[in-house]
Design a protein that fits this description.
The protein is of the alpha/beta class. About 35% of the residues lie in helices and about 20% in strands.
Length: about 500
């Protein structure tokens, strides 16, 4: 935006008014020329000396626009259908740019800021309407606490940090082993705070490696975290099929190290983020997350409460299909879909994180929770919707080709394993999973067998990094993991 850009704010409610005031005060990012709204009681009036025009569907074609004019959708409570309708109307009106204030859950201090807006993208139009969560109330358990987020530079970890800004935490530790991703979220959070978003939590970046047991124990005692959200994981299924030892070392043993260090450091609450890939795993990644789930749920009762929150795919995460489809469409296709019948569960990142934060506050010790992901989405249909979002027609302008399921992938996913049932809780879209108590000796025995494969033991060097040995051990404990006849030894 430049100071010469004319901005039409769609929605004259509290969010739209707050953003308009923000733009006026800054005076350098654009000039608000009008609110567009459907509320007949305010159409024709002026708010902060800005005219309110409407109804939107009628007036948007009639307003006098320049080629650089921008529309900003500031109705965070709008349903997906509302946003789709508004987007179609604004596109037809040839606005140069369409921005959106994504979610009411990010405005938990009752204020909206221009910095929270972003250019609209497919995830804003796809899927269901996110749950309307009273996140300010949900975050009370974190007020004055020190909160550690592992994998803080990832899609889930970084959104946790954004939403935690308004939770009143004393400190937010951004833990990760990738300096670039941690630097990016650290910089973003500081900029958000400078622009008035959230409270005055101290942001502390921490670069480290969870597989290093001594370091993990050392740093947890130094940080004195009260609550840990463990999102860090190697998670790309085909890549982990090609690097299975790394998957188990990071996801299983990294979780074990973090649990042990958290217990020793006096952590009060430990929340593990898990995945539907852990349900009757067909991949080494899924198997590694199943082990992590078992570790958290079997943790000895004591002063630290542990819980697991399991959910499916999130829209727009790094490495997910939405960014991939976007890149493929940008170069003219083809868009690649593994299987025409493949389906996945999807949820927006902000909604998933809001539910995780809510569950973390009320979850019971050593329990597993599953998020209500809605109905599974057909991947080919998702690809077709993506193509239309960018203004093309599937198979006419952009071809779609089927490449076949990749190693470790399922055609369909499930959120519950055999023997697991879900029970509703008092919280919308959060279910408690009822299951038979698991035997900790199974997990301990499995980790004992896997350890010399993942970590070098001079007294027993032969198994180290042996992929074939690793898969055999996992398959013996987890029969759903398929055999791989061509698995190399190293």
């Amino acid at each position: 935006m430049s100071r010469t850009n004319r901005v039409y704010v769609i929605g004259a409610g509290f969010a739209g008014r707050a953003i308009a005031r923000d733009l006026v005060q800054k005076g350098v990012v654009g000039r608000v020329v009008a609110f567009l709204d459907d509320d007949e009681s305010i159409i024709g009036t002026r708010i902060d000396d800005i005219p309110v025009l409407g109804p939107i569907s009628d007036v948007v074609q009639l307003v006098e626009k320049t080629p650089a004019d921008e529309a900003l959708i500031a109705i965070p409570s709008a349903t997906r259908d509302d946003v789709r309708r508004l987007y179609a109307t604004l596109r037809q009106a040839h606005f140069s740019r369409i921005r959106i204030l994504p979610s009411v859950s990010q405005i938990i201090d009752g204020q909206a800021h221009f910095i929270q807006t972003r250019q609209i993208d497919p995830q804003d139009l796809l899927g269901r309407t996110p749950a309307n969560i009273d996140l300010k109330n949900s975050l009370r358990y974190l007020r004055g606490k020190r909160v550690l987020i592992t994998g803080a530079g990832g899609s889930i970890g970084s959104e946790l940090a954004r939403q935690l800004l308004s939770g009143g935490a004393e400190r937010i530790y951004l833990f990760g082993h990738g300096e670039n991703s941690v630097f990016e979220i650290d910089s973003e959070l500081r900029l958000l705070q400078e622009e008035g978003v959230g409270e005055s939590a101290r942001i502390v970046p921490v670069i480290g490696e969870l597989k290093d047991r001594d370091y993990t124990d050392f740093i947890l005692k130094r940080l004195k975290a009260d609550v840990v959200f463990h999102t860090a994981a190697f998670k790309h299924v085909p890549m982990m099929e090609a690097n299975p030892v790394a998957a188990v070392a990071n996801n299983a043993f990294g979780t074990l190290n973090l649990l042990e260090a958290s217990q020793a450091a006096g952590v009060e609450r430990f929340v593990l983020i898990s995945t539907d890939k852990a349900v009757e795993p067909a991949s080494v990644y899924g198997a590694s997350k199943l082990i992590a789930e078992r570790l958290a749920m079997e943790w000895p009762a004591g002063s630290m409460a542990t819980m697991v929150v399991r959910f499916g795919n999130v829209l727009g995460s790094r490495g997910s299909i939405l960014p991939l489809f976007g890149r493929q469409i940008a170069k003219g296709g083809p868009v690649t879909v593994t299987d025409p019948e493949a389906t996945r569960f999807f949820m927006t990142i902000p909604e998933a994180v809001s539910l995780v934060l809510e569950a973390g506050g009320v979850g019971l010790d050593r329990q597993l929770y599953v998020l209500d992901m809605g109905e599974p989405v057909n991947i080919r249909e998702l690809a077709e919707q993506m193509i239309r979002f960018y203004g093309y027609e599937p198979e006419v302008d952009i071809p779609i080709c089927h490449t076949g399921l990749r190693p470790g992938e399922k055609r369909t996913e499930s959120l519950l394993a055999n023997g697991e049932t879900r029970r509703a809780t008092d919280l919308e879209r959060i279910h408690l999973v009822e299951r038979e108590p698991s035997d900790r000796t199974w997990t301990e025995r499995l980790l004992s067998e896997l350890r010399p494969v993942c970590f070098f033991d001079p007294d027993d060097p032969t198994p180290y990094r042996n992929r074939r040995r690793l898969r055999a051990i996992l398959r013996n404990a987890i029969p759903t993991l398929p055999d791989k006849a061509n698995e190399p030894e190293y």
